[in-house]
Structures are given as C-alpha cells and as structure tokens.
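New to this. Comment on this protein:
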Amino acid sequence: MTHTYNITGMTCGNCVAKAKSQLLMLGDVAEADVQLSAPQATITMQKHIPLATLQQALGKAGNYTITEADGGMHHTSPAAEKSSWFETYKPVLLIGAYITGATLLIEAAKGDFNWHTWMQYFMAGFFLVFSFFK
C-alpha cells in the first residue's frame, strides 16, 4: 500500500533525513520518500500503519506533524490486492456453468442428445447473457 502524507515542521535537508530514517525504522514500512520542496512523505507499507504510530515515530526525530495528504484515500498496488484465480473468475465460471447446465437439461428433456443442437442452445444462451454486460 502506498500512502501520501503532509509533514509540517521540516526546514532543512537534515530534517528530511531524520524523518525518513524514523519512518524506515517502523517494521512495516518498505519504502519512504520524504520531500522538503513539497513537505510530503510517500510511504509504501506492507500493511496499514495508523497515523498515530507515524506521528509517534516522527516525534522522536523532531517537532514534526504528519497528516494525511489525500483526505484518507489510499492507493493499493496490485500486489497488495492479490486475490485467488477462483475469486477473480468466479462470476464468469458461474455464468458458464449455468448456461452449460441449462442447455444440458434442455437436451436431456428432449430424450436424445445432439451435440449440434446443444451447441446452438449454448451459444444462444452465451450471447444472450453476455449481451447484458455491454
């Protein structure tokens, strides 16, 4: 997760170095980019760190105050949003299973199974269902 914070109280490059070193000492901080020109810190963390914990760490470096820069909106990287293959494709798999099951039941109700007719029913169901997603 990447979060952007405003830091007030920094006046020189030494302040930036102190703030960055204190942030990097936190266990879940993977990367910290602290700037003086726009007094901000962009922090990449493995799991969310509360603002109070960040403030406590910066308090050790000096009289700095940290606030959220983006109004509480947090950006997560794709690596942080890992979901299983099944979770990703579950809706498509359910639709495919439903269409397959319905067309198999139609063919079974007729008494004889004809692959050609089954495929026509399957494709008709496929196009009807997926036409609603346009």
